C-alpha cells in the first residue's frame, strides 16, 4: 500500500544535481519512477545514486510522474520545456521543478499552459554528484520560487530533502 501524500518522481537529467534530488526525495519516502541519462558518465551516476531506478526516455518520465525534476544545463532548459509542450507531454496538475539558478518560473510557462504547476528550487551549494551531496544538502539553503499558492509545496519538498527553504 502506498503512503499517503507520496509522489511519483521523475528526474530529467543525471548530471550532478538530478540524481541527488532524486535520492533525497527517495529517502523522504517518495517513489522515484525513472531518470533520464544519456552519456556513460550520467548513466553511471544515475545507477550509483538511484540503484534500481530505471533509465527512461524523457516522454516516459513525464507520462509516469506526478513530480518532474528538470535538472538539465541552463542553456537547454527553455528549449526542453517548450519542446515537450509542443508534443503535449505535460499533464494537468503535474508538479514541474527546475534547478537552474538563472531562471525563475517563467521558463516553465509552456508547461504551465498545459496545466503543469511550476516551481523552481535552487540549492545554495555546489554539487559533486555523489552521495556526499546528500549530507551537504542537509546543511544548505534552497531558494524556492513559485506562485504564492504553490510555495508551501516547494517549501515542503525542500524540507523533505533535508534543506532549509527560503522564498524568493
Strand order of the largest sheet: 2-1-3-4-5-6-7
Total strand count, please? 7
Largest sheet: 7 strands, mixed
Unreliable residue runs? none
Structure class:
alpha/beta
Write the H/E string, N to C: EHEHHEHEHEHEHE
Radius of gyration: 14 Å
Q: Averaged pLDDT, please?
A: 95
Please tell me what the overall shape is.
globular
How far apart the termini lie comes to 36 Å
Content of β-strand: 15-25%
Please tally the helical runs, counting DSSP H or I stretches of 4 or more residues.
Answer: 7
Tell me roughly what share of residues is in helical segments: 25-40%
Structure overview:
The protein is an alpha/beta fold and 168 residues long. It has helices at residues 18-27, 40-49, 58-64, 74-86, 109-113, 132-137, 151-160, and strands at residues 8-12, 31-36, 67-70, 95-98, 117-123, 141-146, 164-167. Strands 2-1-3-4-5-6-7 form a seven-stranded mixed β-sheet, sandwiched between helices. β3 (67-70), α4 and β4 (95-98) form a beta-alpha-beta unit. The longest helix has 13 residues, at 74-86. It is globular, with a radius of gyration of 14 Å. It starts with 7 loop residues before the first strand and ends with a strand. The mean pLDDT is 95.
Q: Main traits of this protein?
A:
36% helix; 168 residues; 7 helices; 21% strand; 7 strands; alpha/beta
How would you summarize the topology of this molecule?
Blueprint: E1 8-12, H1 18-27, E2 31-36, H2 40-49, H3 58-64, E3 67-70, H4 74-86, E4 95-98, H5 109-113, E5 117-123, H6 132-137, E6 141-146, H7 151-160, E7 164-167
Parallel strand pairs: 1-2, 1-3, 3-4, 4-5, 6-7
Antiparallel strand pairs: 5-6
